[in-house]
Design a protein that fits this description.
single chain, mainly alpha, 6% strand
């Protein structure tokens, strides 16, 4: 307990005595994301996965996101671009979301290596969808997919 308190105090003091350095690092990171759509997408997917796992009280265990996804960021970019509708581009990425065609909430998983996680984050389950449309869709299943999944369950 004392060691933890000492470490927290040291971290706090170190951060505040080097605040300009940390601000500069933050600004550099932001600039890189804005300049490079591939890096922006990489950061966005990593954040989305971290959030989805956190919501399930799980974690990545310090593992890089791209080490457990079965595709590269370039392949994801190509997949999303193939689902773009008029007006979408990687430059206006904030106006559209990465949508799970079958919502992530429909899959059961306890680790990034579970089949449910891999199916949820498979390329053919991801699409670009305007942010407003994605918010309206929420966790609802597309009607056609519900029929397909029901048929699969009966096999």
């Amino acid at each position: 307990k004392k060691q933890l308190d000492r470490q927290r105090k040291y971290n706090y003091e170190y951060f505040h005595s080097h605040i300009e350095h940390f601000r500069e690092l933050k600004n550099q990171s932001y600039a890189r994301r804005m300049e490079n759509p591939q890096h922006r997408l990489k950061c966005r997917v990593s954040g989305l996965i971290r959030q989805k796992l956190h919501n399930r009280e799980l974690g990545k265990g310090g593992i890089s996101t791209w080490s457990f996804l079965p595709y590269t960021v370039e392949e994801l970019m190509a997949r999303l671009e193939s689902t773009f509708t008029e007006g979408m581009s990687f430059e206006n990425m904030g106006l559209w979301h990465i949508d799970h065609i079958i919502p992530d909430s429909q899959y059961m998983y306890k680790s990034v290596y579970d089949t449910g996680f891999q199916k949820s984050w498979a390329l053919d389950n991801l699409q670009a969808l305007w942010a407003e449309d994605n918010m309206i869709k929420g966790s609802k299943m597309p009607y056609k997919k519900r029929l397909i999944l029901k048929d699969e369950d009966q096999d």
